[in-house]
């Protein structure tokens, strides 16, 4: 028996705390070694599918909160329902959506999941064509990694009547408005902003500022010059409201 252990490199006495690789190779079945990459790939596919489902779910919640038409089925879609409909790790462009505003039926927005991990100018130009085909001036990109420098410049050079927003999947894995520490935000219509200014005799310069790049501002698609009503619950002070100007 001792001779057989010596032939394997002596399993009872590892060298420097480790068994020789030849011993391990002999002990690990070939099929098990081959299964490791397959298992890793399966985990990657599951994770990517989960991320796509989660980010898409937040998109529906976001557009519902922006006043667009979203069905209860879309808001409540489970991961299993997503897999049945789209399969595992579906092509990203299968998830593209078009939303119509509840109050302004002619107001539409495209949500695009580009195939390229990093979106470039060619993707932007293709989106502009798709916007024209769908009679809309607003598009939201859900990207895997981000934008190329030239794509960022392309967005900066767009006409003022075209709006392009960009979110990464990672930013949409969680709905920021659902965090317990985030108060309720409501964007005021122009007429409500005017009434507020008249009632309290204030101007833009008198209000606290909120960056247009704030996660909450981006979630609601806030624009520079808009006023946001922030309502917060407090055990000490009760329910109180203040206003912020997007800048």
UniProtKB/TrEMBL annotation:
<dbReference type="Pfam" id="PF01191">
    <property type="entry name" value="RNA_pol_Rpb5_C"/>
</dbReference>
<protein>
    <recommendedName>
        <fullName>RPB5 homolog</fullName>
    </recommendedName>
</protein>
<dbReference type="GO" id="GO:0005666">
    <property type="term" value="C:RNA polymerase III complex"/>
</dbReference>
<dbReference type="InterPro" id="IPR005571">
    <property type="entry name" value="RNA_pol_Rpb5_N"/>
</dbReference>
<dbReference type="GO" id="GO:0003899">
    <property type="term" value="F:DNA-directed RNA polymerase activity"/>
</dbReference>
<dbReference type="GO" id="GO:0005665">
    <property type="term" value="C:RNA polymerase II, core complex"/>
</dbReference>
<keyword id="KW-0804">Transcription</keyword>
<dbReference type="InterPro" id="IPR014381">
    <property type="entry name" value="Arch_Rpo5/euc_Rpb5"/>
</dbReference>
<dbReference type="Pfam" id="PF03871">
    <property type="entry name" value="RNA_pol_Rpb5_N"/>
</dbReference>
<feature type="domain" description="RNA polymerase Rpb5 N-terminal">
    <location>
        <begin position="48"/>
        <end position="130"/>
    </location>
</feature>
<dbReference type="GO" id="GO:0003677">
    <property type="term" value="F:DNA binding"/>
</dbReference>
<dbReference type="GO" id="GO:0005736">
    <property type="term" value="C:RNA polymerase I complex"/>
</dbReference>
<feature type="domain" description="RNA polymerase subunit H/Rpb5 C-terminal">
    <location>
        <begin position="174"/>
        <end position="246"/>
    </location>
</feature>
<comment type="similarity">
    <text>Belongs to the archaeal Rpo5/eukaryotic RPB5 RNA polymerase subunit family.</text>
</comment>
<dbReference type="GO" id="GO:0006366">
    <property type="term" value="P:transcription by RNA polymerase II"/>
</dbReference>
<dbReference type="GO" id="GO:0006362">
    <property type="term" value="P:transcription elongation by RNA polymerase I"/>
</dbReference>
<dbReference type="InterPro" id="IPR036710">
    <property type="entry name" value="RNA_pol_Rpb5_N_sf"/>
</dbReference>
<dbReference type="GO" id="GO:0042797">
    <property type="term" value="P:tRNA transcription by RNA polymerase III"/>
</dbReference>
<dbReference type="InterPro" id="IPR035913">
    <property type="entry name" value="RPB5-like_sf"/>
</dbReference>
<keyword id="KW-0539">Nucleus</keyword>
<dbReference type="InterPro" id="IPR000783">
    <property type="entry name" value="RNA_pol_subH/Rpb5_C"/>
</dbReference>
């Amino acid at each position: 028996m001792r001779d057989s252990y010596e032939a394997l490199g002596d399993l009872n006495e590892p060298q420097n705390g480790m068994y020789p690789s030849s011993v391990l190779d002999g002990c690990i079945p070939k099929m098990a070694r081959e299964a490791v990459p397959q298992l890793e790939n399966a985990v990657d596919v599951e994770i990517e599918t989960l991320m796509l489902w989660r980010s898409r779910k937040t998109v529906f919640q976001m557009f519902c909160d922006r006043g667009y038409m979203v069905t209860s089925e879309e808001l409540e879609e489970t991961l299993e329902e997503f897999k049945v409909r789209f399969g595992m790790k579906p092509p990203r462009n299968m998830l593209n959506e078009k939303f119509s505003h509840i109050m302004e039926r002619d107001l539409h927005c495209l949500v695009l999941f580009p195939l390229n991990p990093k979106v470039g100018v060619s993707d932007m130009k293709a989106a502009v064509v798709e916007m024209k085909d769908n009679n809309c001036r607003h598009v939201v990109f859900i990207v895997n990694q981000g934008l190329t420098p030239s794509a960022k410049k392309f967005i900066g050079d767009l006409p003022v009547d075209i709006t392009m927003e960009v979110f990464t999947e990672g930013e949409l894995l969680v709905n920021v408005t659902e965090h317990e520490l985030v108060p309720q935000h409501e964007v005021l219509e122009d007429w409500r902003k005017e009434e507020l200014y008249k009632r309290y005799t204030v101007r833009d310069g008198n209000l606290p500022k909120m960056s247009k790049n704030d996660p909450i501002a981006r979630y609601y698609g806030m624009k520079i010059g808009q006023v946001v009503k922030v309502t917060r619950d407090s055990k000490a002070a009760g329910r109180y409201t203040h206003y912020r100007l997007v800048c």
